[in-house]
Amino acid sequence: MALRTKAVSVWVAVQEDGAVITGHCDCMAGVSEVCSHVAATLFYIAKAADMKTSCTSKPSQWNKPQKRKPQTAHAEASSINFKRPKHPLLDNTPPKMPKTAATGPSLTTKTQQPMATASQRETFHNMIRDSGAKPALLSLVKGFNDSYIPSVVALNMPSPLCQLFRTEYMQLSHHDLTQKCEEEASRLSFSTEQVAALEKTTRLQTKSNTWFQYRAGRITASNFKTAVRTNPDNPSISLIKRICYPNAYKFSTTATRWGCQHESTAISSYKEVQLKSHDRLTVEESGFHIHKEHSFLGASPDALVTCKCCGEGLLEVKGPMCVKDKSILSEADQRQFCLELREQTLQLKQSHPYYFQVQAHLACTGRKYCDFVVWRGVGKTTQELHIERIYPDVAFLSPHVARAKTLFQKCIMLELLGKYYTVASAQH
Length: 428
Known about the structure:
InterPro entries: PDDEXK-like_dom_sf, Restrct_endonuc-II-like, YqaJ_viral_recombinase, Znf_SWIM
Keywords: Metal-binding, Zinc, Zinc-finger
Region (Disordered): 55-114
Structural class: alpha+beta
Radius of gyration: 29 Å
Order of helices and strands: EEHHHHHHEHHHHEEEEEEEHEEHH
Oligomer: single chain
GO molecular function: zinc ion binding
Largest sheet: 5 strands, mixed
Number of strands: 12
Distance between the termini: 52 Å
Domain SWIM-type: 10-46
């Protein structure tokens, strides 16, 4: 678009889960609802949803020019020619003939190709469907596009908990709001198919909008210990905010960034070691798992592990910065460190938040074991690797799940529906 050309006006309508309903633009092609301006707007919205734009990064809101009436008239999409402006066919001029004389048909003469029949088109569509790829073309072909519908949409997933909020609930008394919470809590259930679909949809984790949406309002494995230790009658407001608004209250320190930066290296090192002693080992990405019976619990393990000899398990990797320049064993006597020396063996402390996290992972996924890994290295070079296999501990988990349920019903639901705690803290 030239600098002096008037900007077009674009609008799009989308559902709350991100599914596009329709769009429109006042350019000549906008009547077909699929012009490049609409597409660019959708890309911008998707990117903006993952970022918070400051007011200084936006165009000036106080010196806007006066609006002018649109000068571009709409045209039928079928009558618009999208070829190059200087293409000879636009003005019906015959193609230039070669300067030298030649016998036989001209090389520049184009022959009219017959249109493919319905049978030929169907055969072609079947061939590309069976090619093993997933071509975008078939998403536009009736009869082939069912598999392109996002599973979250196709299965009619329950809405994210963050959508339970209603402005009118903020005016309710504690008793009335609690009753509303009980009504809503009775409807928070997921089928096995929905749980599986959500996990596959959110395997990009922090790069997935859906991952953030469905984590909001749920007690995740990383918050599990803090959640079961807080007093439901006087809960930690910072914990409530972190659970209900994870995108706004992201926790990031030098130590956590260090661990995230080296996570892929640690997983590769784990896989390299385990392949030597396990049959047909696979390590794949994991999405967000919601507990099938207790949908207020969720977990996002680092990876899903499967092998012929041990079955289905999980992987949780830690790269603590405190062992960056010293051995893992040398930190075992430190009170804050996750490992301790027990019976001459390094083991994860059962009082540590990581043990609570691993047990929550196992409960939400239903898998047999979790390999807990502590990695130490420099750059992409592994110096030391601690691998510990942890199994579900039902006796440990049961009372803690009960405490988490109490916190969810008495506190988190109040915040989700009526912002009970954040409004109260703001008033004080």
